[in-house]
Amino acid sequence: MKKNKRKRKIKMKLVIIFVIFETVFTAITAPFIVYYGPFENVKTEVVGSVMTTLTLQWLATTFLSKEKINQILKDQTAISIMQNTTEGQNSGVQVKNKNDNSIERYDVDSKKFKGYILIINDPTRIKVGFSSKLGLEGERTSVIAKTNNAIAAINGGSFTDKVNGKKWAGTGANALGVLMSKGKNKINDIKDENVKTNVAALTKSGKLLVGPHSIKEMKASGVTEAVSFGPALIVNGKKTIDDNGGWGSSGRTAIAQRKDGAIILLVIDGRQIGSLGATLQEVQDELYNMGAVNATNLDGGSSATMVYDDEVINNPSDSLGERSIPSIFYVERR
Amino acid sequence: MKWKKRIYIWIILSLSLQCSILFYINHYFLNTDSKATTKRVNLDKHKQTKKSNINVPVDAKKILVSYDAKYLSYYVNGELKIVNCEDGSIKNIEGEEGTKISFYKWLPDRNRMLLVEKEILDESSNLVLYSYDLSKEEKVKVKDLSLTDSKAEVDDIQLSILTEFKYIKVSSQGERSSIYKIGRMKDMTKINTTPKYVSNMLLTRREDNLVYEGAVYNKIYATQLKEFISVEGIDKLTLIGSDDDDNMYVGKLKSGLVSKVYYGKISEDTSKWKSFDLKEATLKNNLFVSSIGKVYQDDALEGVLKEINSGTETKYEGKLLQLYNEGVVCQVNNKISFVTFK
Predict the structure, then answer these.
(1) pLDDT in tens, A272-306
(2) Which one-letter DSSP state was computed for residue A124?
(3) Chain A contacts of B186, Cβ < 8 Å?
(4) Which residue ranges make up each domain of chain B?
(5) B325 contact residues in A (CB cutoff 8 A)
């Protein structure tokens, strides 16, 4: 009897020591295998995603030097910066469906993200909308869309997240770069008309401009709607990103144009169970497969929102739902 | 078994497990060559339906409506129920296994609520904060409060939908009020308050400044201010409400009744604040401030809600429960009805 009891006690002790050993050993070796091992995708994914958060950066900085981190992030973006050809951009695009009022919806399902696509056949319906309290506070995509009586909308361009020097306290009040709606400049940070910055802009005839453009170029092209964001993902039918883009996986918003002028709006859910998010390359590939010849990334993360007929059809990642932002792209109701 | 051999086996076990998991993630999950499927979806139009009168059970407690009164919520037997005011359907909101929903609050501008779940039987009684979207019927965890006091209960939450800061007030028998701040990135910090017991609190929308009232001496403080807010040397002030422009509305308290209302921005000196007298002194609970800065006074005996500035009166039947964006929610026995502002 006593012998069996002793045997069981020894076995229990063994199991406990085993569990403790494995936990500690794995916790110590895992970072090294991830950061210095052969699993490239995991490494760039972890570094890319972790460095965009506030609270988890230590997961990378404890094990990798700043130079190494920058190298991993930069390695991915180098190719997208080189390709900024704007000669004859949109030369391949012919707006064919000016009076076609149809809108199509597609849902995207992949192992690591869920996405939503709206295709608007008449590109002249796409406009830039903005918060009615620009400078004071931002508004939700669904609210700005409703104010403009839009049938559909996605969040738009860039804005500052700092308030009084405090990060993550932003209310979406202040857009950065350019913000043009119906031909009027609501915001323009860019003092030099000749400086090229990444934009997502639409001309009066409905052509989408993406990537680096100067104010002067946009004026010459007859741009009436514009926000600042990038990078351009597809230019003149060519993909710009060869690797995952270096920004990790996250919620994404993008706008693109097909050869026949139809506009593609894309939003991908991120930072949640069931949808980790997409890399820039995945966004690019999805748009390319839908026939886009010009495409650009817009503000993603917690801002990624898609609205159709007063309903938010994606799942914004912030715990309170839609984020308050300064600008959107909307589709005029017809 | 020799220990040396044992350790070798354990090391190999851990490394091979890690490598196989990482290999799967690297080659299958994160592999950008793997295809996503894209499927066409029907776009159907949804129709607007009119609000109908709602019946609630006799023992319904804490009846609240969402900002546009599309949804109505109440507790029955400790269970949280949500009624869709457009079609009358009723939904049961359940906590995770073994928990009950001990507190909830509707967001001020959307059909979403914050829920606090508390374990029913466990001594540790951990409080967990969730966010629940009504239209999608999705519950998302916001934060594990992980408080050490097992008797702690959440009794108020104030939040800003712009900065996304959420302030959670927790009270426990005999202990001082504890206020916790949770940010957009789910970081949590404890706030130090000057008074031991805090009654009312309000959060500014555009910046991170919590205004709160001491329960005992009715002095009003703000987290960004060093001193309590002093208005014309009045001894007791109570917080009535705030508007979307971040004006705070406070009432001069005398013998428990509010006789005069002052309002202005916390960042400004109170000498710049505006004020108006109330024709009839009343309890703070009979005063309401709307998001656009309209102040209403309720006369429960007459069944009339008066907008103080314009004098417009809205008549209602029964007991006034709360205001929503377009009007008043009132209750007669177990019937809830909605009366739009005049």
Answers:
(1) 888 989 989 899 999 999 999 999 999 988 899 99
(2) G
(3) 55, 319
(4) 211-284
(5) none
C-alpha to C-alpha distances, A115 to A252, B27, B138, nearest whole angstrom: 9, 22, 17
From chain B, the residues in CB contact with A111 under 8 A are 28-29, 34
Contact across the interface for B36 and A172, Cβ inside 8 Å: no
Q: Best residue in A320, A331, A333 to probe B by mutation, most B CBs within 10 Å?
A: A320
- Residue A301 gets the label, from left (phi > 0), alpha (psi -120 to 50) or beta, of left
Token readout for B189 is 């910090």
pTM of the entire structure? 0.85
Q: Cis peptide before B57, with omega less than 30 degrees from 0?
A: no
The residue count for chain B: 342
Per-residue pLDDT tens digits for B71-88: 999 999 889 999 999 888
| pLDDT tens, residue by residue, B43-66 | 876 666 566 779 999 999 999 999
- Smallest CA–CA distance from A40 into chain B, residue: B26
Contact list in B for residue A31 (CB cut-off 8 A) is none
Residue closest to A161 by CA, chosen among A315, A330, A312, A323:
A323
A286, closest residue in chain B (CA to CA) = B36
As a whole number of angstroms, the distance between CA A117 and CA A98 comes to: 20
In angstroms, rounded to a whole number, what is the distance separating the alpha carbons of residues A255 and B267? 41
Q: In what order do the strands lie in the sheet with B335-340?
A: B54-55, B335-340, B327-332, B319-324
Pick among B22, B129, B186 to test the A interface (most A CBs inside 10 A): B22
Distance (Å, rounded) from C-alpha A191 to C-alpha A177? 10
0.90 surpassed by complex ipTM: no
Q: Could you give the count of Cα atoms lying within 13 Å of B137 in the half-sphere of its Cβ?
A: 8
* CA–CA dist A232, A255 (Å, integer): 10
Interface check B45 vs A, CB under 8 A: yes
